[in-house]
């Protein structure tokens, strides 16, 4: 009798496990809402910023009758060229003199104050001397003091020196720029390595040559940034000129326009001149920022990433 050996049954093959489906991410409505809110705020800010400039552009093309007979944002007859001609011809071209005065005050003061600020900031960063940090603290205190607070003491000092009602009364106070010194130190820390200066000294360069030939070219973005800040501040320097000047031939353009605006009720023909003069006064600032924006943008990021 034959015997058969029983073979064990093969274990059942388990069915492949189903991969759990990834959980559905909830729709983030908060992110979309925040973007909409941010864009709405930016749109409001843009409208708020551009509306006065838009009105100024439109009003500069109108004559005196259209300024009051038409809607503020509607176009009237085009009188831009005739308004410009009347502006520069009024009172023997007094507005042109004010414009040149502003350029003189602004360019000379901006260049000199920027040089002083860059030199001081470079010295605070690269040199070690007694009381350096305390002196730099005094500079920072100067940043916190509003410029209008010091105008009366400056006027009294200028009066003692006989500088009131002169170009020097406006130029000399503009040379001091504590905020520029602070920025220059930051730029010097970010742009000028100490090793490069040591190499220049090893090659026999003196301190003045090291600063002018080595450090100053490296500080070009910072120089332009400080120059733009100084240029804008000096171009808009109204209160200092108001305190120091009595002769209208020495007025900067902003003070001259203010004086014209004070007399529009007695001389209504000045109203279109004030508007077109305000538009012309904005042009130098726009040109400066457009021409130097490449350096200005790079200067703003100095020291952000090291």
3D structure, described in words:
With 306 residues, this protein is an all-alpha fold. Helix content is 69%, strand content 0%. It folds into two domains: 35-77; 89-303, MetI-like (MetI-like fold). The radius of gyration is 33 Å and the shape is globular. It starts with 28 loop residues before the first helix and ends in a 6-residue tail after the last helix.
Radius of gyration: 33 Å
Structural class: mainly alpha
The proportion of residues forming helix, as a percent range, comes to 55-70%
Mean pLDDT: 83
Number of domains: 2
User: Can you name the CATH architecture of the largest domain?
Assistant: Orthogonal Bundle
CATH topology of the largest domain: MetI-like fold
Characterize the largest beta sheet: strand count, sense, and whether it forms a barrel.
Answer: none
Question: Which stretches of 5+ consecutive residues score pLDDT under 50?
Answer: 1-8
Nutshell version of this structure?
Helices cover 69% and strands 0% of the residues.
Task: Give a quick set of tags describing it.
single chain; disordered N terminus; MetI-like; 306 residues; mainly alpha; MetI-like_sf; MetI-like fold; transport
